[in-house]
Each structure stands twice: as C-alpha cells, then as structure tokens.
C-alpha cells in the first residue's frame, strides 16, 4: 500500500471502509494528522505486512500453532471454519485371535457325550441377568389352589377319597343321603340325567331295604317321609350333583369293615343344571371333607372349619343356619369377597342325620360332620376375579393362566 498522505474529509468509510480503516490504524500502518485545518491520513509504517494473509497461509499449510485469539478473529471474519476430527488408534488386545468363533451359550448333551466341550469357547455366565422362562405348560389357577387345599387337608390328618365316578346312580347321590324322591333337586331342571346307560342295577340289597324302610316308614327315632319309595327312581343314572355321593360310599364301606375314627376329603368335578352367572356354573369343582368320630359336636365342627379356612388365608367368615335333607343342624359358610364387595357363599356344612348313618351300620354314638365348598369361589377371592366365567370354561384368557403366580393361600399380599 503506497500511502503518503490523504485528505480526510470525514468520508473515510466511503473511501476505505470501516473495517479496513480501523485495521490499518490498529496495525500502525497509518495515522491521522491535521494541517492547516485539514484532516490528513498519513503513512506511518515503511513496510506493510498482511498478518491475516500470513495466518491463513499457515493454516492452509497445516500449521495449527496459532493462539486462540488469532483463531477467534479469523473465525469472526468468517475466513475459517473449525471442524473436529476424531481419530482412533487400533492395536492388538490381550484376547486378540485371528480365528474368530462365536462363544457357546449352552453346554449341550451332545458336547458332553462327544467331549467337544473341551475345544469350545463358552460365554461367561452373568449371574445378574434375567433367566429364560422355560417353554412349558402352566398350571391353571384352579389346579394351584387345588394343590394348596390338598396340602392343607393332609396337614390336618385327612386321607383322600377316590372320586373317579362322574356318573352316579340316584341311590348313592340322593337316596342314601336321606333325600326324598320328591325333592326338587331331583328334577331335570336341576340335575343332568343320562339316557344311556339310563339306570344302574347293582346295589347292596340289605342296605337298599334299610334305606327304603327309613324313607317310607321311618326308624332309628325318625318318622321318615311317609311315601312309597320306588327302586326305579333310585336306579336312574345322572352326572353327580355333589361329591357327597362319594362320602356316602366311603362311610358305608367304613361301617362294613368296622368303624374307626376317620377324616376324609375329596376334590373333584360335579354337575348341576344351573343358570350361568358371575358366580355359578353348570360344571364346577367341589371340595368336601368328612369327619367321623364318636360324640362329635357342632362346636368341634365350627372349630374345624375355622382352622381349615384360616390355613386357606380366609379369616373373615360367617356361619348361617340352613336346611339340608341329610344334615341337621346345617350351616352355610360365607366369606367376604373384596372384589364384589359382598359376602359370597363358599360352602355348606352340617352333621349327617341318623337316618343316613344308622342304615349304613355305623354305631349309634358315631357322629359324622361334612362340609363342602366350591373350588372356584375361593380361587376367585384369592386372585381377585369377579366373574367365574373368566376363571373356568371356554372363554378364559390363556394369558391369565400364564401370568398368575403360584398360589399360597396362607400368604397375604
């Protein structure tokens, strides 16, 4: 730049530009003077060196030793851009291997039998990782609760009765229990009768005669029902309406062998011609317990029931007097359902009548208490299910079966 002096008339911005004039002043290239009332721009430096060009040349040639202030000025003037470049240095590690192989996850039977596991590279076991859920079947909640009930019965000294007769005769299902042949429960509106085979013919004759007599004439301190008992009605086959038919068979067998105190239970399916709703099914499971002992009282029975349900985790119980043809006194058992917010009947109980026990051949001083409850309703209470059809039947959600945990009736959440 060849500048000796220039007249500065105040239009320096137009002549030189604000940036150029300011930079020239700050670099010491020029200065301003006033002579004879005239403002002049006078050359100050003999040699003008363009530092910005030199700095840009250094950057272009890869020399990055400029200070932060210089780089900031160049960036501010938009002459350079800063770009970050990351570089990785790759080197051999301790486990470097040119022969790559996928580590084995499982030790198989084949590896053990062939010995190939010796040459395998196994992945280290992570003890904090979630385990793989095995692909297998899952127990239905009813089966889980059933298993708990069985354990409780066994803990209380009960033995299990055989329940493999779904088809039963009316004699063992009704007549042996001192239930009259005109009883509404024996109507087709409440019971599923079979058409093939329609009847059973094999019964203990002497026992049948004693049952016939106590129904039609009375006996053992009872007046009976005073009607003509018909063997044809007793022969009709049906789907058992309760497992008390099993209890009747077992008590008769106990009387024949010679009485000993006993406690028995059964858990299996029964069938009734019910109207389906949130708490009733036509096919359901009945849990039944029978206790035979000399001079057994109702207080003993209530204590037994209370202990049984306490072990089941159900402590909020009520007992209500009721009528059953074959028990006297009789009680209904209720438990409070938190989901339904009401008391739900979960069982029936009572002392078997002498008209049922004495024709079997049991001693006069033997008392037998029986109680029955459905398996479904305690399961509903335990799992918080409000509709029984969501628990049992063709409409259940299989994911519910998969998700529900193992049931512990005596553990409160």
UniProtKB/TrEMBL annotation:
SUPFAM superfamilies: Class II aaRS and biotin synthetases. InterPro entries: aa-tRNA-synth_II, aa-tRNA-synth_II/BPL/LPL, Phe-tRNA-synth_IIc_asu, Phenylalanyl-tRNA_Synthase. Gene3D superfamilies: Bira Bifunctional Protein, Domain 2. Its cofactor is Mg(2+). The keyword Acyltransferase does not apply. Its EC number is 6.1.1.20. GO terms for biological process: phenylalanyl-tRNA aminoacylation. It is found in: Cytoplasm. Keywords: Aminoacyl-tRNA synthetase, ATP-binding, Cytoplasm, Ligase, Magnesium, Metal-binding, Nucleotide-binding, Protein biosynthesis. Residues 144-405 form the Aminoacyl-transfer RNA synthetases class-II family profile domain. Pfam families: tRNA-synt_2d (PF01409). It catalyses: tRNA(Phe) + L-phenylalanine + ATP = L-phenylalanyl-tRNA(Phe) + AMP + diphosphate + H(+). GO terms for cellular component: cytosol; phenylalanine-tRNA ligase complex. The keyword Nucleotide-binding applies. One of its GO terms (molecular function) is metal ion binding. Belongs to the class-II aminoacyl-tRNA synthetase family. Phe-tRNA synthetase alpha subunit type 2 subfamily. This is phenylalanine--tRNA ligase. It comes from Meloidogyne enterolobii. The lineage of its organism: Eukaryota, Metazoa, Ecdysozoa, Nematoda, Chromadorea.
